[in-house]
Amino acid sequence: xxxxxxxxxxxxxxxxxxxxxxxxxxxxxxxxxxxxxxxxxxxxxxxxxxxxxxxxxxxxxxxxxxxxxxxxxxxxxxxxxxxxxxxxxxxxxxxxxxxxxxxxxxxxxxxxxxxxxxxxxxxxxxxxxxxxxxxxxxxxxxxxxxxxxxxxxxxxxxxxxxxxxxxxxxxxxxxxxxxxxxxxxxxxxxxxxxxxxxxxxxxxxxxxxxxxxxxxxxxxxxxxxxxxxxxxxxxxxxxxxxxxxxxxxxxxxxxxxxxxxxxxxxxxxxxxxxxxxxxxxxxxxxxxxxxxxxxxxxxxxxxxxxxxxxxxxxxxxxxxxxxxxxxxxxxxxxxxxxxxxxxxxxxxxxxxx
Length: 353
Fold this sequence. Notes:
Elements: E1 2-4, E2 9-11, E3 13-17, H1 25-40, E4 44-50, H2 53-64, H3 69-86, E5 91-95, E6 108-111, E7 139-142, H4 161-165, E8 171-172, H5 175-185, E9 190-191, E10 214-217, H6 223-236, E11 240-243, E12 252-254, H7 262-267, E13 271-274, H8 277-285, E14 290-293, H9 299-309, E15 313-314, H10 334-350
Parallel strand pairs: 3-4, 3-6, 4-5, 6-7, 8-9, 10-11, 10-13, 11-12, 13-14, 14-15
Antiparallel strand pairs: 1-2
């Protein structure tokens, strides 16, 4: 650690353990945003370059499992755009196995964000390294990790209590994770925003595809949802522009782009329709008008935002999407602004000494 004599503040060498190598804009941007925020506070920051076997296998399958040549070429093209972006992150020495984590030399390790604590998620696969196992007695805090869809009564959670007890401070991004941590530790963690919301708004990227369009950021939409979205766009007299994913039913597609540009491309559209956690985050960050379409595997991730900010959601039972489902928070919204300030204060408090 080093101390500035001008403002009497201690700066640290910090390692961040998260999902930073996946082909996913939200995963990339949460890692970029958290590392950038901590760097802006004067800390020396590295992303701990650890990827477990499950992550490596699933990322490989996502690229190579298709039998369609054009889709395969598209996957390769997308992978290359992400690898180029990932190379710009402040990544530390590659850690080949969890056993090597004990040799890390950081003043503090920050765990998060993303679903690194979701023991039901095949990417984390219950990997105890994401809970600090094997890292020794160094300082550990968490920032906005999530247990995702893990039910609070999952019997496998009990074994995590000793590991969580070693954390100096714990924050999470959703109510389900808060309830789990409180049950396991007897401590009520802080509820903080995703690190993407710690960064400045993005400059809208307006081009021939985004201008005048409804931007869609959807993962695995059902046929019912596709039909509803298409009817809504037709009624509004606007084309659909899919950002980050190619859909044949969208008139415009921007499937291959720098993941850092995804929020700006969505901001270049007139309206956003999403069913993902980070689609909501990108919309809130840039104060965009947006519609949330319910999705069974993603609703729990978004529920904390819905409750705290009073957001509307298009549920599966609803036949049509209407203008009444549009959410938009203005720059003067005090609830979100206050939540962001509280989240920054959490990091400042626990990384200041």
